[in-house]
Amino acid sequence: MIAWMQKHNKYLVVTIWIATIAFIGAGFVGWGTYQYGSKASAIAKVGDVEISQGKFNFVYQNTYNSIRDKMQGNFDDAKAKEMGLTRMVFEELLNQARLLNLAKEYGVIVSDDELAKAIASNRAFMQDGKFSKKIYQIYLRNIGLKPKAFENIVRDDLRVKKLLKLLNQRALDYEVDVIGSIINLKDKIKFSLVKKDDMLVAIDKDKLKAYWSKNKDRFKTQKVYKLAIHWTKSDDINATDDELMKFYQKNSYNYLDKDGKELSFKDAKDKVLIDYRIKKAKKRALLEQIAIKKGKAKIETIKELPVNDPTLSANLWQEILAKDKGTLLKPRVVGNKYATIKIIDIIEPRVMSFEEAKKLVTQEFKEKKKRELLDRKIKNLLVKGKFEKESGFISLSNYDSIPELKKPQKMLLAKAVFSSFDKKGSVDLGDSIAIFEIIEQKLGKNIDKNIAIALTNNLKSSEFEGRLVESLIKKYEVQTFARIQ
Q1: Contact 342, 330 (CB under 8 A)
Q2: Integer Cα distance of 160 and 108 in angstroms
Q3: Three-state DSSP class for residue 190
Q4: What integer pLDDT is reported at residue 6 of this predicted model?
Q5: 90: which residues sit within 8 A by CB, 6+ positions away?
Q6: Backbone CA torsion sign across 36, 37, 39, 44
Q7: How many contiguous H segments (helices) and E segments (strands) does the chain have?
Q8: In terms of Cα–Cα distance, which of 373, 368, 365, 361 is closest to 199?
Q9: Quick one: which of 162, 151, 52 has its CA closest to 107?
């Protein structure tokens, strides 16, 4: 499943639509590693369009939650890292930014009225079939975005949708006929799998060092903040049931179940106690911050933390990145306590020495050499025509007779077979490469023309969007202020 998703993300051309927002009340998940450079408010800039940290966080969370939902909860941070979700989201946002630049050139705009209608029509913000401002505000509070920031994200999505709609053309009759004939076609194939892990690479230290020397500007240390941190605890604050009940009654809209319904006081009590303590500890934290500011108290804990270290929250890091050396921040909630932070020093990234970078260089060098060995083996096997497995007749819509592979991999193989201009070919299935040869063909029954039209429109749209992004990659300069892993 992970491999299938990796391969199908090549042209996820800006489908980060608001309909994915179905996770009201969800907390931020842990995400991949990304370190920020000199631009505190942006992780990248494409042409005239900046990609903010807040937008990245929002899109990553929605994507993560959407995948977890589709995989019925069988998805976690480790699997997100395995599939390179951080990089995938970043690349998708780069593609969106390219299209936004083009939309700006063409004068494509989204009015306030269009924006309001889009948000109001989203089911995630509805109660009894109508838009609920209360639910909308709770959602924004839970994800840590101000209305303006969230609305800008939605506006960007709408602009790209409008741009693609203006540029795209519907299927022509002859295109429908061509696709219809392809759909009717059935092929029988022979194929073999080449496992990527079978490619063994010997590491030569001199070659490794030469590779590092040529590419060392890409291997840099993380940006590090030297921070003085004072913690104000809240778990020593006591509360009676009456006090907690009053607090709950004022804030009950914050305590929702997975369906968006308010929890009873009994079910929410543990969370209510935490929130009550945090609120009561705020005054204590502010007094301690004032004492530190006036020099009447010192911060004893000094830490050197790489940007976005999980010791601090994502929102707090966003604030730190926007401040200068010497700044004393106001107390901010981290977990169930307050952190008062002073920025002592900012240590900028530097090029790693060979020894420091050796692990990263080795990994990248091995992958490069594995790819070269894999390509060589595939070419040799295709020339020799060595195939181990055989399918029954398959089509674009029915590929069940392909043996051994999982369904997503069967789909990838079938798509490669019917898009190939040659009798032989290969396709990446994630953990392996399938090489194939078409050994027999026949025509199946005619299909409904409406199905052919719909499929042609989808294929044409997908191909157009992919080619458009490819052309825009060359047109707009990308500046990155983050190291994405």
Answers
A1: no
A2: 9
A3: strand
A4: 41
A5: 34, 43, 44, 56, 482, 484
A6: negative
A7: 15, 15
A8: 373
A9: 162
Better-scored residue on pLDDT, 212 or 446: 212
The two three-digit tokens of residue 359, written as one number: 């692990």
What the block records as the tokens of 391 is 């399918």
pLDDT of residue 447: 64
Give the whole-number percent of the chain exceeding pLDDT 90. 30
- Give the pLDDT band (50/70/90) at residue 445: low
Within 10 Å of residue 249's Cβ, how many Cβ atoms? 9
Query: Can you give the length of the chain in residues?
Result: 485
* pLDDT score of 52: 87
Query: How many other CB atoms sit within 10 Å of the CB of residue 150?
Result: 20
Contact present, 304 and 222 (Cβ < 8 Å) = no
Residue with the two structure tokens 């109660």: 127
Is the C-alpha dihedral spanning 81, 84, 89, 93 positive or negative? positive
Task: Identify the residue with better confidence: 156 or 76.
Answer: 156
| For range 196-206, the mean pLDDT | 83
Q: Estimate the crossing angle of helix 449-475 against helix 85-106, to 10 degrees.
A: 90
**How far is Cα 86 from Cα 81, in angstroms, rounded to an integer?**
7
What is the pTM (predicted TM-score) of this model? 0.52
For the chain, domains (ranges, CATH) are 2-167+468-484 (1.10.4030), 173-204+353-445 (no CATH), 224-347 (3.10.50)
Instruction: Return the HEC string of 51-106.
Output: EEHHHHHHHHHHHHHHHHHHCCCCCCHHHHHHCCHHHHHHHHHHHHHHHHHHHHHH
What CA–CA distance (Å, rounded) separates 312 from 331?
12
Question: Scanning the structure block, which residue is given the tokens 């392909």?
Answer: 402
Specify whether the CB–CB gap between 294 and 281 falls below 8 A. Answer: no
- What is the β-pairing status of strands 301-306 and 34-36? unpaired
Q: What is the pLDDT of residues 148-196, one digit of tens each?
A: 889 999 999 999 988 888 877 677 777 777 776 666 678 899 999 988 8
Owner of token pair 């009561």: 280
* Residue corresponding to tokens 């692990």: 359
Q: How many CB atoms lie within 10 A of CB 426?
A: 21
Over residues 25-32, the mean pLDDT reads 34
Instruction: State both tokens at 307.
Output: 């940007």
Q: Is a pLDDT exceeding 90 seen at residue 305?
A: yes
